[in-house]
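hey so u asked for the seq, here:
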Amino acid sequence: MKNKITVLHLIDSLPREGAEMVIYDLIQQGDRDGFEILVCALTRGGGIAEMLEGIGVPVLILGRTSAYDLKAFRRFISLIKERQVDIIHTHLFSSHLWGGLAAILFPGRVLFRTEHNMSEWKNIPRRVIDKLLSWRTDQIVAVSEPVRGSLATRCRIPLRKVWTIENGINIDRLKGGGNPSGKLSELAIPPESRLIGCSAALTPKKGHKYLLDAAEIVLAKREDVYFLLLGDGELREELSSSIKDRGLAGRVLLLGSRSDAVEIVALLDIFVLSSIREGLSIALLEAMALGRAVVVTGVGGSIDLIRDGISGFLVPPRDGPALAEAMGRVLDDPKLKERLGRAAAEDVLAGYKMENMVMEYARLYRMTYEAKRR
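ran it, structure tokens below
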């Protein structure tokens, strides 16, 4: 008889981004005496794969070339058999689909799903697939109450089937800080500069276009401000061209995905998130825990997280001038910046504890696994 419950996390790929970081934190901070953990990426690895391997967690890259890659799917099925997986835990849409198909083939396995994003983006076929998959899914978790609500309103999944477990903040990752002056020198930024930054995947849902609209307005009035954009993704070349076309080269820096992202965020005067839709941003939680003043679009989990005017500013999505106006208020008032940052840190450190997230997932794992066995 097995001593541990074997959990297989399935996700599309493993770059240093939000959902992927949740997987790492859940494993690194979790009960590895009671659970045997495996991670499987459909397409490719990345920074999180390296971090997982560094703590001794097996990572398998399937190398899927299309949604219909049968060879990759057979490798996935073989992995479930060979490692005697008890719980298939999926993250993001493609993984939900492949995990659901595998669970049909293995009716005795638990199918566990975390929904990291709002469902407004899903077209009718995807909403239908989500609804169908929910019938076979044993447990669905949403990372915020707005995400839970969107599953009900957009995908017609009954709320009784969905638990909310909010993302927690990994305090250990925020310790250190490095050398601020050395970091600025490395980035070729003058030491007295004001810094505004964003850490988010370069994808349409993060709304970088509107952040650049705001940057144009801010930089036209202020010569001491620099924008630092952390993250990578499909829009990198498009955003790079837009920065040049707008005449912002040298003042708006695309820094890519970096292992020192937290150190850079710690240098910021303002952390900004221009998302069109959002579940509950790990990068935003980290920025708040670091005491940064935040300017964020009022979408998804950010609405419940931010006390507007107290722990940050909420602005409408797709509104560059509104972003610029809020950032200008913070830049003009050092006391406001300090007050916002202090309240942000207090809120996040008190209400978004990593141990709560880990404990809730472990409890649901065991509860769902035991119910399946019965």
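Residues 354-373 form the longest helix (20 residues). The two ends are 16 Å apart (CA to CA).
lmk if thats what u needed
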